[in-house]
UniProtKB/TrEMBL annotation:
InterPro entries: Carotenoid_Oase. It comes from Sandaracinus amylolyticus. GO terms for biological process: carotene catabolic process. It comes from the Bacteria. This is Lignostilbene-alpha,beta-dioxygenase.
Length: 501
């Protein structure tokens, strides 16, 4: 078996990350070790250490996440600021080839050259106190949140800036991608501040048309939401702007057959404080008790938008959403009662111990467009994140979802379990892997088979070996079909995609 590692010639690589001796039993230590920076880039065939890769699993799995949260002696203030490292698993005839590569953003390259932190981030201030941050309006595009395959192009996404185009075979960074000009600001003053508008890490592909819908939040005195649409081949179709009632962090949205729906959380954002450098953006967020959640309903066809007030809640991810008749929209979302602001040093177990992350509970919201009311109830009593569904079910009623989960009694920030949620029967099946830590469980349906059959792919951090493994699970019951062991660990990451071959 060809198992030789091909090292990248890039000068920044200075050796393979060392396996750490001894396995910690404390979950906070496990999480801190799981975030240890990755120092090598490899291209290897990985050994199958359990079971066999199914022959009908054919294609490539890409996933993004922060490969490093420190440089030199400088630590980033939040895992959201970690430099994007894309991993790639190519499945072919039962074999798996693995590759990892950092996205060569301008910030990554500059900091690599300097050997220290140069940029501010979502939760990171530059070392050196106020003077080192005052007036620094350039933030690093971390390119770390997701990977998008659309129109034959692979992109690394980060919601605060433009995507980076990535070679799907080598994972080399091709460059910043403005989506055929869609992200280019109209006004020179805007271009001076940022050469491209932001593009979400959660765009949505309409399974019927193949069109891609995305958005970006544009700050400033009059906050706006940019909405973007590309055709199935990736050519730009449309860009429009919607006025926001307030500057809001919007991480995800719901695409139905008729609408785009955004939830604006009751968070006040002290933009001036963040921009001038007095605080990192995450430290400039405050819950505003006078506000509820605003539901913004934007018709796909360009009709008038509606805003409807709902109970205050905080959401990173939606699970599914669809139109129910002509007057209702159903949204299955992961609702938190509160939000966790502030910086997080994920390399420090003591700091991790202090972090309180509210439960994210599968909640059904029914938006009544006629009465302008929102009904809301807990749909499944669980604490889950990073949900995935059958991509063929997007815009329509989805039944089965997969997510990472925190079993009751588990208080640490990361999720040691995988859950299969039945949104119709409201049953949840959970598989607890503690002390190991799985990443996003990506559902890969088997072609022509019903929803909920096929495979779930996840990258699991193994506490005992300080290595990560690719796990292939049976989508029906989360039993293990196969495991492949990587030559190093992959820090806990965010989102991925599967491209069938
Ligand atoms: Fe996300």
């Amino acid at each position: 078996m060809a198992n030789a590692s091909m090292r990248s010639p890039d000068p920044w690589i200075h050796g393979r990350s060392e396996a750490l001796a001894g396995a910690p039993s404390d979950p906070f230590e496990v999480i801190a070790r799981a975030y240890a920076p990755v120092q090598d880039e490899v291209d290897v065939e990985v050994p199958i250490t359990f079971g066999a890769i199914p022959r009908d699993l054919s294609g490539t799995y890409f996933r993004n996440g922060p490969g490093r949260v420190s440089i030199g002696g400088d630590r980033y203030g939040h895992p959201f600021d970690g430099d994007g490292m894309v991993v790639r698993f190519a499945f072919d005839e039962g074999r798996v080839r693995y590759r990892n590569r950092y996205v060569r953003t301008r910030g990554f390259v500059d900091e690599q050259r300097a050997g220290r932190m140069l940029y501010r981030g979502f939760g990171s201030q530059r070392p050196g106190g106020l003077l080192a941050n005052l007036g620094r309006t350039r933030f690093k595009n971390a390119a770390n949140t997701s990977v998008l395959w659309h129109g034959g192009v692979l992109r690394a996404l980060w919601e605060g800036g433009a995507p980076h185009r990535i070679d799907p075979r080598t994972l080399e960074t091709i460059g910043v991608d403005d989506l055929g000009g869609l992200l280019r600001p109209e006004r020179a003053i805007e271009r001076a501040l940022a050469p491209e508008h932001a593009f979400t890490a959660h765009p949505a592909i309409d399974p019927r048309s193949g069109e891609l819908w995305g958005f970006g939040v544009i700050g400033g005195p009059r906050a706006r939401l940019a909405i973007y649409r590309l055709d199935a081949e990736g050519a730009p179709i449309e860009r429009r702007f919607v006025a926001l009632p307030r500057l809001a962090f919007v991480h995800d949205f719901v695409l139905t057959e008729r609408f785009l729906v955004f939830l604006l959380a009751p968070i006040a954002f002290d933009l001036a404080r963040a921009i001038v450098g007095l605080a990192s953006p995450v430290d400039a967020l405050r819950r505003d008790p006078s506000l509820g959640t605003t539901v913004l309903v934007v018709p796909r066809d360009g009709g008038a938008l509606r805003t409807i007030e709902a109970r205050a809640g905080f959401v990173f991810h939606h699970v599914a959403g669809w139109d129910e008749g002509t007057r209702e929209i159903v949204i299955d979302t992961l609702r938190m009662d509160d939000f966790e602001g502030g910086t997080i040093d994920v390399l420090d177990p003591a700091a991790l111990r202090r972090v309180r992350v509210p439960r994210a509970v599968p909640t059904r919201m029914i938006v009544d467009l006629a009465t302008r009311r929102v009904r809301e109830e807990v749909h499944i009593d669980a604490d889950v994140e990073l949900p995935t569904i059958d991509p063929r079910r997007r815009t329509r009623p989805a039944r089965i979802a997969y997510a990472v989960a925190r079993p009751s009694g588990w208080s640490a920030i990361s999720h040691p379990a995988i859950a299969r949620l039945d949104l119709a029967s409201r049953e949840v099946h959970m598989r607890d892997l503690a002390p190991d830590l799985p990443g996003e469980p990506l559902y890969v349906p088997r072609p022509y088979a019903p929803e909920g059959e096929g495979y779930v792919l996840t990258i699991v951090y193994r506490a005992e070996t300080h290595r990560s493994e690719l796990w292939v699970l049976d989508a029906r019951d989360l039993s293990t079909v196969a495991r492949a062991t990587l030559p190093h660990h992959v820090p806990l990451g965010f989102h991925g995609t599967f491209v069938p071959s």
